[in-house]
Amino acid sequence: MPGPSVPPASLVDPAPSTPPAGTALLGFTAGGKRWLVDPRQDVQVIDAPITPVPLTQPWYLGLVLLGQRLIAAIDLAGLGGAEVGSRKPVERLLLLPERWQTALRVERVHGLRDAAGLSANDANDVNDATDAHASPVPAPSAPDATPPWCGAMFADADGQHWQVLDVARLCTSSAFLQAGIPLSA
Q: By the 8 A CB rule, do 107 and 77 touch?
């Protein structure tokens, strides 16, 4: 099953290393890890059933029918190498900008976080970024094992750790583009 084609460079907008002043970022938990995404990128949260697709990677959960569009639903932690959680009849999804035709399964939406209340954090502190109610995400075994979609790491005033999700890097990563299971000859 061929994956989506790589978009032109003009469509790949790298995430900033620091949130712009006066910006609110949408916080969510996916795979037990707290993430931030810029809501100005036209992201939405929905609850929808996912139709499984055969011959795909375990992290590729399937397709969501949204109006007259089919959207790919993925498990972000599974894409990063963690175990994919069990499925529910209806999943909470974060729809990424329309050009990516993708939604991420999320456990919880935390709402908007004021960027002014965030401070830069050590990216090596991966396990501290997990949600207290979720299982911990394994730390990468080597510095280069960090997925390319992991942006800057921040801490809020309560000491909670948040990782910026670089949507463009996620949707153009080689792992993401290989949703199909290779068939043996």
A: no
Contact 30, 45 (CB under 8 A): no
Q: How many CB atoms lie within 10 A of CB 86?
A: 5
Distance of CA 180 to the CA centre of its chain: 19
- Which residue's structure tokens are 């207290």? 132
Q: Which two tokens stand for residue 139?
A: 């730390």
pLDDT for residue 185: 59
User: Which residue from 55, 49, 47 is spatially nearest to 95, judged by alpha carbons?
Assistant: 47
pLDDT attached to residue 183 = 83
Read off the pLDDT of residues 85-142 as tens digits, 9 standing for 90 and up.
899 999 999 999 999 999 999 999 999 999 888 998 765 444 444 444 433 333 333 4
Query: How far is it, in rounded angstroms, from Cα 100 to Cα 44?
Result: 13
CA distance 78 to 58: 7
Token pair of 95, please? 């729809």
Rounded CA separation 153/35 (Å) = 9
CA distance 115 to 156: 9
Contact predicate 161/153, CB 8 Å: yes
Task: Indicate whether this model's pTM tops 0.90.
Answer: no
Query: What's the chain's length in residues?
Result: 185
Residue pair 93/45 in contact (Cβ under 8 Å)? The answer is yes
Q: How many CB atoms lie within 10 A of CB 82?
A: 18
